[in-house]
Amino acid sequence: MRHPDIRPATPGDLPDILRLVRELAVYEREPDSVEATETDFAAVLFPSEGTPTAFCHVVEADEGGTPRVVGMALWFLTFSTWTGQQGIHLEDLFVEPEHRGSGLGKALLVHLAQIATERGYRRLEWTVLRWNEPAIAFYESLGATPQVEWETYRLDGDALTRVGAPTPTVA
């Protein structure tokens, strides 16, 4: 396989990013959960003011002489109080099913690891669904280790609204 074409996403990639996120939701058995729009992604990836709060790299495959986006890695920066350094949290890694096994997913992860190394980031982290055995096997083949001592918690929906409600002021 020739060197894959990995590049930072551009605003022109927004339809492909949203398409891949929807395909990922189908794969993860949550096809109706995607609420994000191209406008939402544009606001965090390509804000009109300020700096981006998320980043995306895409990988293209040549299909009939025309390059087409077939995979992506969407990520954001984290910070570790223990190391005092930033890291990368990989929110989504997705390669279209017909392109899996071709090395594109590995190339995306290698690319992010190179970014982390070049910038002095100390970690590249992500989460994976426990049932996704092919992904787990792939990650472990690269030397990634599960962080089983940590449990992810989430506040969303009604619970987030309730906890985040303004505290009444006492007059």
What report would you give on this structure?
This protein is 32% helix and 25% strand. The chain contains five helices and five strands. It has a five-stranded mixed β-sheet, sandwiched between helices. The termini are far apart. The relative contact order is 0.12.
List the helices and strands and how they pair.
Layout: E1 5-8, H1 14-27, H2 38-45, E2 55-63, E3 66-80, E4 85-95, H3 104-119, E5 124-126, H4 133-141, H5 157-163
Parallel strand pairs: 4-5
Antiparallel strand pairs: 1-2, 2-3, 3-4
Estimated structural class = alpha+beta
* Strand line-up of the largest beta sheet: 1-2-3-4-5
The end-to-end distance, rounded to whole angstroms, is 70 Å
Order of helices and strands: EHHEEEHEHH
Q: Which percent band covers the strand fraction? A: 15-25%
Shape: globular
Rg from Cα: 18 Å
Q: State the helix count.
A: 5
Low-confidence stretches: none
Overall pLDDT, averaged? 92
Main β-sheet: number of strands, strand sense, barrel status? 5 strands, mixed
Q: Give the % helix.
A: 25-40%
Number of strands: 5
Provide keyphrases for this structure:
5 helices; alpha+beta; 171 residues; five-stranded mixed β-sheet
Q: Briefly, what is this?
A:
By secondary structure, this protein is an alpha+beta fold. The chain has helices spanning about 15-25, 40-45, 105-120, 135-140, 155-165; strands at about 5-10, 55-65, 65-80, 85-95, 125.
